User: Fold this.
Amino acid sequence: MTYFSKGDIMNVAILISGRGSNLKAILEAERNKKIAKAQVKLIISNNSKAEGLKYAKEFGKKTAWLESNNFKSKEAYDKELAQIIKSNDIELVVLAGFMRILSPSFIKQFKNKIINIHPSLLPAFPGLNAQKQALDCGVKITGCTVHFVNEMVDKGPIIIQKTVDVKDDDTEFSLSNRILEKEHEILPLAIKLISENRVNLIKNKVRIA
Ligand code: GRF
Assistant:
């Protein structure tokens, strides 16, 4: 399966919940023309106080926020989210620290159009606190993963991974920071590759052309 953006430039939405350092890395890559075939059209947060929204302002990007407590149910929330994404002609949805599990019906509507960044080498350490899980387990190598989002949490086809050595004196903080540096490389890179139609899904495995 090959990606085709409708026009020359693929419209991207970034979904965040907090700090937004991955969002910043993407916006900087866009500004520096490192992802020439994609444009960040919209930034969505489930938290109007998300620190990362400052980058939307700094880079002059359109924002939307959807607070969960304004919605009666998860379905109602996801319906509104889908509506915003469709009405902005978004071709790729990037979860960059978006701390909400999307409903299966939402994911079905945007099949293979949603990617996520996770701070471990999946399938190891899915879910929350992946860096702590790695430290507790005593692994010597961990890293980060960009993957397509499917109905199973942190289990979709892997697009790119980068490794990080775990040091004996690492704390959750030090390890998370080193992983984050790699996240900031691979998430913009994944967007670039998808926008250039270089990401193919063959029998549920990603092949990069
Ligand atoms: C990152 O570690 C990402 O892998 C995880 O949530 C964190 C978000 O960080 N999904 P930031 O908001 O991009 O700084």
Q: What stands out?
A: Residues 26 and 146 are 13 Å apart (CA to CA). Strands lie at 10-16, 38-45, 63-65, 92-95, 114-118, 141-148, 158-165, 199-202, 205-208. The chain has a mean pLDDT of 95. The first strand starts at residue 10 and ends at 16.
